Amino acid sequence: MLPALVLTAGLGxxxxxxxxLVAKPAVPLGGRTLVERVLRWLAGQGVTDAVLxxxxxxxxxxxxxxxGTHLGVRVRYSWEDPVLGSAGGPxxxxxxxxxxxxLIVNGDTLCDVDLAAMTAAHAASGARVTMAVVPNPAxxxxxxxxxxxxxxxxxxxxxxxxxxxxFVGVQIASASVFAALPDGEPAxxxxxxxxxxxxxxxxxxxxxxxxxGFYDVGTPRDYLATALAVANGATIEPGxxxxxxxxxxxxxxxxxxxxxxxxxxxxxxxxxxxxPPDFRAEGAIILPAALCQDEDTRAQRVGDLALFKIxx
Length: 312
Known about the structure:
By secondary structure, the protein is an alpha/beta fold. It has helices at 34-44, 59-65, 85-97, 115-125, 176-179, 189-199, 220-231; strands spanning 4-7, 28-29, 32-33, 49-54, 74-79, 101-106, 109-111, 129-135, 144-148, 151-156, 165-174, 205-209, 214-216, 235-236, 241-242, 247-249, 252-253, 258-259, 264-266, 269-270, 274-275, 280-282, 284-288, 299-302, 305-309.
């Protein structure tokens, strides 16, 4: 199986304020972090070598992944400063990947694509890039891709009524697509260097339709929905302590959190904080108050806690 580059360097701005604590791929998700789940999935598909790019809160990723031995895959790291984007990151990692063709997997999505079948389709198409896609499930929320005879021919902005396809975070790419970029300079793929490839006369960027479901951990609401789906209900991560009589529904409780007796939490994300006895919250991300910033007008401070509303 091809080696994989897992994109874990992003700032995770849409997941703020959670990403003030950890990088997006390091959020807890049903007993493992998101990036561990991605790597376990890759190992199960036959991938033996992976490179992770790093920038934002890198220790939160390296601390759980290490060299990948416990996940069944050899892991190395490509360090970025500044963050180099979805094309600049692969360009910088090319010496570590050391191959003509490789997988690129987003570190903030889960999707069970058949990589062997996708690799065969990529080779048969002659394309330089093949992107796994599903029918766009939320055109008002996601940008879409225009697909013609399994060839991606353009980007359809979100909000448009026309049918489109949604990229699920798994692609196969030729190193030549990125090799001409200056190393160490930020660049984007789909909304950057792929655009002229899509517009050309040949099949340069192929779409690979899949029927697999996918989870996108983009926003706090997305994260909560994914965590609950993975855990099939309220999820208390290993290492959390819950006091007697506490009522917890549709809520993620992180390792290291302590929930006081009689507390009532509904539809919340509880990070590594101590919740007082009989405390009540609904629809909130609960972080240490020390992480609040002056411009955090949407935050409510309660003692040592900061509560941010989860956008619907």
